[in-house]
Design a protein that fits this description.
about 280 residues; mainly alpha; globular; transmembrane; cell membrane; membrane; MetI-like; transmembrane helix
Amino acid sequence: MPERTSLLRDLPRLLFLAAAGLLMLMPYIWMAAASLKPLDEIFRASLSLWPERFFAVENYGKVFARIPVGLYLWNGVVVCGGILLFQVLFAVPAGYALAKLRFRGRELVFGAVMLGLLVPPHVPALPLYAAFSQVGLLNTYTALIAPFTISVFAIFLFRQFFKSLPDDLIHAARLDGMSEMAIVWRVVLPNAWPAATAFAIFSVVAHWNDLFWPLIIANGDSHATPALGVLFFRSAEAGDDFGALMAAAMIMTAPLVIAFLLAQRRFVEGIASTGLKG
């Protein structure tokens, strides 16, 4: 009886969350449905998610036949993986120092990190483009990765998570003779996988879907990321063929959906455990 009472009490909240989740998913559901339809069914006055004529083979066939899908996905993996690797390498020690070490100017440095959160990524785009042009690094993986290797959001997120770790754990590691860097990578990081997974989701989604910077730096298919590949497909091949465009968008976003479904538990744990500690 208590379990049934608890379920009845939580039922309105669960129904509201389910409805809100379905509302958030509607654009993606529509995109998936449109990728299965011929063009004349997509913009009918009556909305029907299931196609009358199944057009998936034609729509997805156009995408695989006309653009190098594998290359775009590989570029996305290289760029997002490289960015995430460097962000973690820099952010984990920085977050640990701000959370657990005592040094003069620590609060000032943390204030600078907070101010860095206010700087839009578009602001340094022009000087960065000029710098990469001068050294001949346009249309390279280096130009796509380097501007994002230090993430102030990652530093803030890890700092907040590390604040919740018990100091006794750090003191015990120091008594065992471990250096601060050894503590960071061998003690602190293994206990911070929920925060690391949460940040990885944020980082990969942001840079996988980023169109602004790759559109400036990349020229042609060789280093085009998935979002830029969809734009190239629309400009050169698809035109107003929205069924094929939705198919291309489905292919490019599918890895993100699969990755999130696999990591959603740790993602929620990381966000819940990070908190708002001062």
